[in-house]
Amino acid sequence: MGAEVSENVEGGQTGSKVLPLRPGLFAVRVENGNYSGHLIGSKCTLCNWTFFPKREVCPRCSKVSTVETALPTKGKLDSYTNVMRALPVVVVPAPYVLGAVRLSEELVVWSTIADRKAEDLKIGMDVELKIRKVKQDKDGNDLVAYFFVPVAA
Question: Nearest 5°: phi and psi at 72?
Fold first, then answer.
C-alpha cells in the first residue's frame, strides 16, 4: 500500500522523498513507483461552495467556515490557450498549453494540459489529473507537480 500526504512522502530511492513543488495544493500517493493523487480544495460548511486552492475564508460568503476536501480527479476541458513565453517560476518550458478544467458544475481550475498540443485538444473533452516528477532538488528528492491530460478514447 502507498503513502499519501500533501507535504512529502517517501520516494522510490532509499532516503529520498517525494515533495510537491507547491505544498498544500495537492496530495500525492506513491505506489510501485507511480504517482497519483488529488487536488486539495475547501468546502464551505455554511454556503456549500467548493473552491481551489484551499483557504480558511470562503470566497463566496466571506465566513471562516471551510473544511479541506479532496477534489475530483476527472473533468472536462472548458477552455485552453497556448502559452508562448513562460514566467521564470514555471517549471514547464514554453510553449505549453494552459487550460480551464471543469471538475464540477461550480468548480473550474486552471492547469497545464500535458501530453497534447493545442491543435489536438477539443472543448468539452475528458481530462484527468496526473502527478509527475518535474525535477530533483539538491538532496535527490523528487519534486512533483500536477497536470491534467486528455483521457484516451
Answer: -60, 150
